[in-house]
Amino acid sequence: MIRIATESGDGFHAPSISDFYPDALFGDGTFYEFNRILLVRVIATIGLLAIMGFVAKRATVVPSRGQSIVELILGYLRENVVYGVLGEEVGKRYDKLLITIFFAIFAFNITGTIPGLNIASTGLIGVTLVLAVLIWVVYLTSGIIKHGFVGYWKYSLFPSGAALAVKPLIALVDLAQIVLIRPATLALRLTINMIVGHLLLALTYSATQYFWVDAASNFNIAYGFITFFGIFFMTALEVFVAVLQAFIFVMLSAVYINMAVSEDH
To answer: Looking at the whole model, is its pTM more than 0.90?
Structure first.
């Protein structure tokens, strides 16, 4: 969107996936190359740590409004997502990890709606892939610790009650799910949703600029009002998606962990 704003007069500029591959701020072509996406991640991380640190430092028995909001979110995630899926006894082993992941994903997502940042760094596969691999390691090791190495794979790939003839096929499907499909869908779902959201939001900015500045006429100014109000609608939608996608990631992570440590299959 920064690029769009600086190119007025050159016609309509549709947003593209290249927004997620900006030029290097320094270290171009080196292993320490630093660009705007990384800068946004750093800002999101510092912002999240600062807010949480501020709330924790000022926590009181009678909570302030900010402390109440944070405690409400923490309580909801712990009771309804982590304990709701894993149960309280098992959930206590994973609640800190899953809740931390929720806030991290939300912080990286919400930057797409903040003026001056204007991009969700989860729109690049790197961060989401790291988080997905982390969850993969957690549910795999948790299952092996629970059932033993041989017992876990036997429990996961050969469910009791299945007909002998279809067991090899079921084993292949379950193996693909455990090793590839679950972590891949965790990463891809989040990344694709944030890319699409960014493109739609950037499109409303670009179209408004085009109708009001580059191709100004009485007719196009009227169209510009439609796209201008679309900016507010898409921003509200992106805030909702930022929360929803963080929630879905954590919910699915809890489900996968539960499938690994559960006694039933």
So the answer is: no
